[in-house]
C-alpha cells in the first residue's frame, strides 16, 4: 500500500552504486528508514530532496514481504540554505538531528516532535541562536516524549518552588523537592534560576529561546542535570561527537 508522508531527513547513505538508504523523521510515524532505489541519479523522482536537513513529501510503500519501506518519489517542501553553508549553524542543527536519530520517537508524540524540529531548524536558519540552543531542544524533546517533571511544585509537600532557595532534582524519580522535604535523599541540588529556566522551556518553543539570556552558572547547571536526566530515563549520552544508547 502506498502512503504519502511529510518528513525531515536526518541521515542518508549509499548501499549500492545508485541506491540510497534514508533515515527520516516522519510526522506520522516517528523515526523511520527506507530505501531510495536509484536515488543518487534520479532527478525526476528525487530531484534535490535527498539531502540532510530537507523537509520532503514522500510517496512510500512497503516491499512485497513487508520487510522494508521503499521511497517511490519525493517533492522538496523546504530546504535550509543558511544551515547548509554556515558552519556554526550546521553544527547546531546537526546536534539536534543526531539527538532525534538516536532517541527515536513514540508514534503518539511524532507530530509534536516533528513540529518542534521544524521550528528549531527555522529558528537556526533565520537567527543567531546561542550555543546552548541544542540543549534546550533536547530538554523539550524529552518533555514531549513524556519525561516531564513538574518544576513548579514540591512533590513532597506541594508548595510552590519559585522562591530564591535551591531545590533538589531527584533524577531517578523525575521529581523536584524543596530543601525541607529532601531529608538527605539522593538528588542534585539546583538553583532557583535553573528550575525557572526548565519550567519556561516546558511551556515555550524554539522561537522564544532565541531571546533567552542566562548566567553562565544557570546554563551549566541546566546542562548537567538534563544530561543526567536524559541518560537515566532515555538511555542517551553524548560521546565521540554523537549520542550513544546505554
Fold topology:
Layout: E1 2-14, E2 20-26, E3 30-36, H1 43-46, E4 55-62, E5 69-78, H2 81-85, H3 87-103, H4 110-126, H5 133-144, E6 167-170, E7 175-178, H6 179-182, E8 188-190, H7 192-203, H8 206-209, H9 216-234, E9 236-239, E10 242-245
Parallel strand pairs: 3-5
Antiparallel strand pairs: 1-2, 1-4, 2-3, 4-5, 6-7, 6-8, 9-10
Structure description:
With 246 residues, this protein is α+β, with helices and mostly antiparallel strands. It folds into two domains: 78 residues, OB fold (Dihydrolipoamide Acetyltransferase, E2P), CATH 2.40.50; 127 residues, de novo design (two linked rop proteins) (Up-down Bundle), CATH 1.20.1440. It is 38% helix and 26% strand. The strands form three sheets. It has a five-stranded mixed β-barrel. Helix 4 runs antiparallel to helix 5. The two termini are 36 Å apart. The model has no long low-confidence stretch (mean pLDDT 89). Belongs to the RecO family. This is DNA repair protein RecO. It comes from Desulfovibrio gilichinskyi. One of its GO terms (cellular component) is bacterial nucleoid.
Just name the CATH architecture of the largest domain: Up-down Bundle
Output mean pLDDT: 89
- What's the helix-strand series? EEEHEEHHHHEEHEHHHEE
The neighbouring-strand order within the major sheet is: 1-2-3-5-4
Globular, elongated, flat, extended or rod-shaped: what is the shape? Answer: elongated
Q: Structural class, from secondary structure content?
A: alpha+beta
What are the segments in which pLDDT stays under 50 over at least 5 consecutive residues? none
The value of Rg in angstroms is 20 Å
Number of domains: 2
Helical amount among residues, as a percent range? Answer: 25-40%
Please describe the biggest sheet, giving its number of strands, its sense, and whether it closes into a barrel: 5 strands, mixed, barrel
- Spatial gap, N to C terminus: 36 Å
Estimate the strand proportion.
25-35%
CATH topology of the largest domain: de novo design (two linked rop proteins)
Keywords: DNA damage, DNA recombination, DNA repair
InterPro entries: ARFGAP/RecO, DNA_rep/recomb_RecO_N, NA-bd_OB-fold, RecO, RecO_C
Organism: Desulfovibrio gilichinskyi
Pfam families: RecO_C (PF02565), RecO_N (PF11967)
